[in-house]
């Protein structure tokens, strides 16, 4: 057992409320940092070790002490209690390898030492850190590419700072200085990205520990400039996934506390940008408390601390419509619609896509987020076919195409939105009408003459198809019945020929379930009605209008929805 000089435990570093998000690295970020001719000189300054709650995941410290770790929802792995093989990747998982090198699990041992005062936890934490430092020289031959990738560096820095509060050794101080140099390097900085925020938090903590004023000031300047790029005036995070809005909001909370504890002034704009995220996240939370899984966000996430907003329907210019019948009612109806700039960062090719939640249940869902592993399934979850969208038959999809919100009409009982793009080389138009009270969603998809489309509808795995006939698909799950009806907008007559295919939907990180997917027949235009709560809705067309008798009463609207 290695022995180190350490101080008495200080105030406990509380475990974070934030779920472990280290599996969010992207392959393009695996940059190898050039070998240094020599290690940096020891800095002369000495400041406090600023350790802020929210830095480390909750782990079973006793198991880590015995060399057993579990990352990214994967089965535990025995690393042993001696030297560690830092090139280990037993699950062939990018997320697992990133977690290994981030050393936040080592930081959890420091947390346990501060809580219980048991020196065995601190000794093991120091041994792990020293083994990592000696086994992963920057630019060294055979070193894992994850060792010095920018995100593991950012996440590892605060763990080393917290260890340094109790362990006073030259190797740790040199490593902190080396981490600071890497974090301050503008060529490796992810401006406007959640990784960049983590880099700034780490640089600020290291700068304070080493009394390096320039690093501290740089970190705060970069945080503010990045927040200006990342969070727009309406509070939308440009990473195109509400789940990352939750992450960045909480990491900004860590950043603000770190700034204050370093004795610096919190920039008002930085605090304001963090507050503005709250509206975006709150509107993305379904009535059952789960975040709608748009983009790279696993299903089942339940964010806390985002209060109800004044309005029940909100259009965000960056590409989201969120609507609900009421706040603080688990049985309320809810929907989302996607448009806006082309796919970027954690977004999917989900433009024109909708989700629908009614009667306390998910109705229309998307393939969601499964993992960041480079698999055919991951690639499929990003594609249009994994979402509730119209695809143009026989045409190639053009990735990264922007979609426009052409018009919108919002009243308390009914909302209508018209969107358009040319993602398949022709004008693709979708009009979405949602009735609240008498729950119903109507969607009109259109392409020009000479082209044909097929609309795709993914139903929640809890719903199974019980009948397909006459342009109707009836699904059931427990005591809930849902009916999909498709009509020809030109005539108002039923449009038959639906196909039902089983599809694997991601129900969480590394979890899937079989779902019923309905494909419309190919046509120039298709009007789709989704009626929750009944397996036999009466639908009548007369004089260019449709009347649907729902469980909540009749709903009438023109076949063109918005005209």
From TrEMBL:
Highest taxon, organism lineage: Bacteria
Domain named Heparinase II/III-like C-terminal: residues: 339-517
Gene3D superfamilies in alphabetical order: 2.70.98.70, Chondroitin AC/alginate lyase
GO molecular function: lyase activity
Main localization of the protein described in the UniProt heading: periplasm
Residue ranges occupied by any Heparin-sulfate lyase N-terminal domain in the UniProt entry: 81-260
Subcellular localization: Periplasm
A GO CC annotation given for this chain: periplasmic space
InterPro entries xrefs: Chondroitin_lyas, Hepar_II_III_C, Hepar_II_III_N
SUPFAM superfamilies in the cross-refs: Chondroitin AC/alginate lyase
Protein name per Swiss-Prot or TrEMBL: Heparin-sulfate lyase N-terminal domain-containing protein
């Amino acid at each position: 057992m290695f022995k180190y000089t350490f101080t008495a435990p200080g105030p406990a570093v509380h475990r974070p409320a934030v779920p472990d998000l280290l599996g969010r690295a992207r392959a393009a970020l695996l940059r190898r940092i050039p070998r240094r001719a020599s290690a940096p000189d020891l800095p002369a300054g000495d400041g406090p070790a600023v350790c802020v709650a929210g830095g480390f995941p909750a782990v079973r410290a006793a198991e880590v002490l015995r060399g057993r770790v579990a990352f990214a929802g994967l089965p535990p792995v025995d690393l042993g209690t001696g030297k560690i093989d830092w090139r280990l990747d037993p699950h062939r998982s990018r997320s697992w390898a990133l977690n290994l090198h981030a050393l936040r699990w080592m930081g959890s041992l420091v947390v346990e030492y501060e809580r219980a005062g048991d020196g065995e936890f601190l000794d093991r934490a120091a041994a792990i850190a020293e083994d990592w430092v000696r086994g992963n020289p920057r630019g060294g031959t055979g070193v894992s590419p994850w060792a010095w990738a920018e995100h593991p560096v950012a996440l590892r820095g605060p763990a080393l700072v917290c260890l340094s509060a109790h362990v006073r050794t030259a190797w740790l101080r040199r490593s902190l200085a080396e981490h600071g140099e890497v974090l301050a390097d503008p060529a490796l900085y992810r401006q406007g990205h959640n990784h960049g925020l983590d880099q700034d938090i780490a640089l600020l903590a290291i700068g304070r520990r080493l009394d390096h004023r320039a690093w501290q000031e740089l970190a705060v300047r970069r945080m503010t400039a990045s927040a200006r790029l990342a969070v727009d005036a309406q509070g939308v995070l440009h990473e195109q996934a509400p789940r990352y809005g939750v992450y960045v909001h909480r990491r900004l909370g860590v950043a603000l506390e770190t700034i204050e504890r370093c004795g610096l002034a919190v920039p008002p704009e930085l605090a304001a940008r963090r507050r503005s995220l709250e509206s975006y996240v709150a509107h993305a939370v379904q009535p059952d408390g789960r975040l709608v899984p748009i983009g790279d966000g696993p299903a089942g996430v339940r964010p806390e601390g985002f209060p109800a907003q004044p309005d029940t329907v909100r259009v965000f210019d960056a590409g989201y419509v969120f609507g609900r019948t009421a706040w603080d009612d688990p049985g309320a109806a809810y929907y989302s619609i996607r448009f806006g700039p082309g796919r970027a960062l954690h977004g999917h090719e989900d433009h024109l896509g909708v989700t629908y939640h009614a009667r306390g249940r998910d109705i229309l869902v998307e393939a969601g987020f499964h993992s960041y592993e480079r698999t055919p399934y991951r690639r499929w979850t990003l594609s249009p076919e994994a979402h509730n969208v119209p695809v143009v038959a026989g045409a190639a999809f053009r990735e990264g195409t922007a979609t426009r919100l052409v018009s919108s009409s919002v009243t308390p009982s009914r909302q209508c939105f018209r969107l358009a793009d040319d993602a398949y080389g022709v004008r693709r138009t979708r009009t979405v009408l949602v009735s609240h009270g008498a729950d119903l969603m109507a969607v009109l998809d259109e392409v020009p003459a000479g082209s044909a489309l097929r609309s795709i509808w993914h139903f929640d795995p809890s719903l199974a198809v019980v009948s397909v006939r006459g342009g109707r698909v009836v699904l059931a799950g427990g005591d809930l019945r849902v009916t999909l009806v498709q009509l020809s907008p030109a005539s108002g007559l039923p449009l038959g020929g639906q196909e039902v295919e089983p599809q694997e939907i991601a129900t969480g990180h590394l979890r899937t379930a079989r779902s019923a997917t309905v494909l419309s027949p190919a046509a120039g235009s298709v009007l789709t009605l989704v009626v929750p709560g009944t397996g036999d809705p009466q639908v009548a067309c007369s004089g260019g209008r449709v009347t649907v008798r729902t469980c909540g009463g009749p709903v009438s609207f023109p076949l063109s929805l918005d005209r």
